[in-house]
Amino acid sequence: MNETKRFKHTAISVNMLWIFFFVLVPNLMVVAISLVERDPVSFFRWVPTLSNYRSLFDPITVKVFVNSVEYSTVTTILTLAVGYPFAWFLTRVSAHRRSLLLMMVMVPFWTSSLIRTYALVILMKANGVINSMLIALGMVEGPVSILYTDVAVYVGLVYSLLPFMILPLYAVLEKLDHGLIEAAHDLGANNFQTFMGVVLPLSIPGVMAGCIMVFLPSMGLFYIPDLLGGAKSMLVGNFIKNQFLTAGNWPFGSAASVFLIVAMIFMISIYLLIMKRFNRSVIL
């Protein structure tokens, strides 16, 4: 075995061991704990039961999942509405400006999203930057309630997840054949008709990849509703965190985690099937 093959096998083995011990084993433990009973002292005991999954259909739990889907759907629509024009703009500017703008998109990843969320708290609190500017400009007489509202939660989710929408959209739009756009104009189509008939259909893989990359994480970002919504906005992520850290009901929290994982696998499978049906490349 030469040096190249030895390095290749070593690198693959290390990655496989990492995935096995830090991805597969923890997820199998979550599945196993979701199938046993709760214990007030040791959090769970090895007595098989399906009661944790039956509890997922309680009205309160169902309401949490419905709220999570609502928050995630609105967040996905808002990020798409902001991210699509920006991604299109990136493809129309010079290479120098494009690099600068892409750098601005990537810079937030250099810091923790938790720290960035705390920065939003400083901006939106009663005596924060936004209220101070509104009062100084005479637009309001007193502080406006922004923090601990649904608006603050949506701002935090969109701000944190916007790059996940922009980057796959840019990857698709950057490869778009602009000759097709010119051909549509030559045939008499206006800008709206060209967008609906040419640009949008060809950018569907990027739209779907961006929607999945925003929708799924937004259901689990528990710290954003906690810090910006004052824990009044309960998402699945908050619900699971509370079961593990507050209620001490590890089996029920594990069952909710398994349900969320299955939902993610289901959505990704639909995306892959649609991409296969239309014979498009997968962007994730």
From TrEMBL:
Q: Which GO terms describe its cellular component?
A: plasma membrane
- A Pfam family of this chain: BPD_transp_1
Which InterPro entries does UniProt cross-reference here? MetI-like, MetI-like_sf
Compartments, record wording = Cell membrane
Q: Highest taxon of the source?
A: Bacteria
- Which family does the record claim for this protein? Belongs to the binding-protein-dependent transport system permease family. CysTW subfamily.
Domain ABC transmembrane type-1: start-end pairs: 65-273
Which UniProt keywords are given for this protein, alphabetically ordered? Cell membrane, Membrane, Transmembrane, Transmembrane helix, Transport
Which gene name belongs to this protein? potB2
Entry's Gene Ontology BP terms: transmembrane transport
Please report the organism this UniProt entry assigns to the protein: Desulforapulum autotrophicum (strain ATCC 43914 / DSM 3382 / VKM B-1955 / HRM2)
Q: Which PROSITE patterns match?
A: ABC_TM1
- This chain's protein is named PotB2
Transmembrane stretches, by residue range?
Answer: 12-36, 71-90, 151-173, 194-224, 252-274
Bilayer topology reads: Multi-pass membrane protein
